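Morning. Coffee machine broken again, so started the prediction first thing and wrote up yesterday's gels while waiting. Chain of 447 residues, entered below exactly as on the submission form.
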Amino acid sequence: MKIKDLSGKTIAVWGLGTEGKDVLGYLKSHNITKNFILINDVPCDKPRGFEACELYCENRVAEGVDKADVVIRSPGVSIYKPEILNNQNKVTTVTDLCLNEIRYNHPGCKIIAISGSKGKSTSVSALAFMLTKLGFKVGLGGNIGRPLIELMDGDYDFLVAEISSYQASDLTVSPHIAMFTNLFYVHSEWHTGHENYCRDKIHLIANQKDDDCFWVNAQNKQLVDYTEEFAARRKFYDVEDGFYAENGNLLYKGEKILGMADLKLNGMHNLDNLSGVFSIMLSLGLDIKKAAEILKDFEPLPHRLQKVALKNGVLFINDSISTAPEAAIGAINSFEGNLVLISGGQDNQQDYTEYAQCVEKNHKVKAVITLYQTGPKIAKALCEQVKRNDISLIEGDSLEKAVALAYDLLQKNGGGTILFTPTSPSFGFYKNFMERGNHFIKVVEAL
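Came back before lunch.
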């Protein structure tokens, strides 16, 4: 579906967050239609300028859907809701509208989309940063926080988009170039199961053309398996005859391109993702060595292995973006010296066995403090897997107490790093991972 297909229709916008408000404003300002219906799962205030529109919430959602010609769902609205399943022919999204519009009406713009369970935001940001510094006009948006609708009228050489599984799940168009960082077990509730999650994520490339392509981390078996049906357009990174990470360096066919020590980024896992980013850039015919020099000035995004403070020999790291055990494992392996971990969040049916095994193998981990809903589940996995007696396993009851306890432990043991790596989503306790990370920062500042 394209923007022109909405002309004069009765449009229901389901989900009145940032993206929902943006699409309402765009459609109104461009005189696409004057007939709007507002839908939100829970009661809320109507957006400014749309006070006269009918708002359908809770048990009236289906009524609102029925009255609309087209429904634009926000990412948080699952495609598995019965109201969506029963009306698939008239449901679209901002992401689908924008990719269709740009792909078919802006032939000079190449769409590059990055998805994956973890590492998407840093990867798209690094790619957009290098492309911009190389002199291209670049639009950056999507799941990273800027709805694509804000970029639709821009004149770009490249549109770089972070695409979540929520956004990819029902796309009718695919990007020219895509990249997947990895594929882990997450978001099962929205997708009603892990199998659906994986297939919804991979649907990003289901509508690619013959001359399009996508890049896959060759070291992630689950990702390789789920993309097998699209193998004709698949390219691999993290392989010896291309870009790959080894011993803290990014290499291309054995030649060092840059080292982790050259970057402001934390986390060795970033080198795996960068091997995919550089694979894309090389395929575009760009100067890789010049791009590597540019990347040295790239500033890491907040809440992703973010250095918060150094107090009395104790370094505080905010990794609130960590919503899966696999992310925490990568974070643990990114630091030397004594470590105290603070983990826990909303239960998302995740398995913490490998996380606990990682803790067992890393003697630098001196304590793990667990919190929130998943706290007992993480603690149980740790008790089952961790057999060494040089570690403390503590079930906490607040972030404030956990940080204070971790700080005290490390001060008594010559310093080290407190790693706030939740391993679980934030919802139910915080609005999002940003609010959770900001709470951690405030707690640290208050010490």
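The longest helix spans residues 269-283. Going to sketch it on the whiteboard this afternoon.
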